[in-house]
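Now for a concrete sample entry.
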Amino acid sequence: MLSTRFTDLFGIEHPIVQGGMQWVGRAELVAATANAGALAFLTALTQPTPEALAAEIARCREMTDRPFGVNLTILPAITPPPYAEYRQVIIESGVRIVETAGNNPAEHMPAFKAAGVKVLHKCTSVRHALKAEALGVDALSIDGFECAGHPGEDDVPGLILIPAAARALRIPFIASGGFADGRGLVAALALGADGINMGTRFMCTVESPVHERVKQWVVDASELDTELIFRPLRNTSRVAGNAVSRRVVQILAEGGNFDDLRELVAGARGRLVHEEGDLDLGIWASGLSQGLIHDIPTVVEMVTRIVCEAEELVRGRLARLCVNPVGAHASF
């Protein structure tokens, strides 16, 4: 078993996290992940109302007695969701772990802290992580450029971002972006993280509430099959490469603006991709880790495999690379 500051803080067995994923973070996947000894998050805004979130939390509790949390992603909008109502449902439902993402979580921190809720905040830069640490969050998720969804605008990959974060931060943090196996877990720990967050890898599991055609597309895809959309708008998002995402890139490259592609990128279209399996119906997030995903296991099979691979690497190959007798080195 791999024990870190993160596993100790959140009371889980393995330093592995299934973060919030729009349309994907539902009770079936979250409960399976919790039962496998990892930490998982329901996605609050996947539920259409705060009342629906309360029902989803209750449904998840029927399937697991292990710790799980709720993701609350805070984004600017002309008509924002009732964030305070979603927050209150989380608290009243007795959930004690929250993953915040998007904008600064300062508005929500007093209520969460007063209720004894531990807050894990997702960032794409060290400077934002330091601000969140100063706000009093309990842990951080540091997203490298490889991640699905919004990687920020700095384009810093995990190999640099993780050790930079480790040097600057005092609280536990996990690494996100590009992780799919035991090798990635060991690398993240070696770079200074206390665990890993995975989205695309969890999306391609038996319990994931995603159409099988979507899962199979990820299995068949390579690390080259993603698109970075909204780059000229300074709101970059990494999504699966399909007809819609390539069209979005083209429109913006030709001088278009958001109004020219609003209908193409509507969230309802992305939801239908997951539900109906029409891969070119809308945009949907997928990370570079898709190049490392070659099967669709159950969650417990995947988590067990990753942990075993990591332990075997640490005790086997890496141990053999260490100095043996004085002055002698193992051969590479």
Observations:
- Residues 122 and 181 are 21 Å apart (CA to CA).
- The chain has two domains: 5-208, 213-276.
- DSSP finds 15 helices and ten strands in the chain.
- Residues 213-276 form one domain.
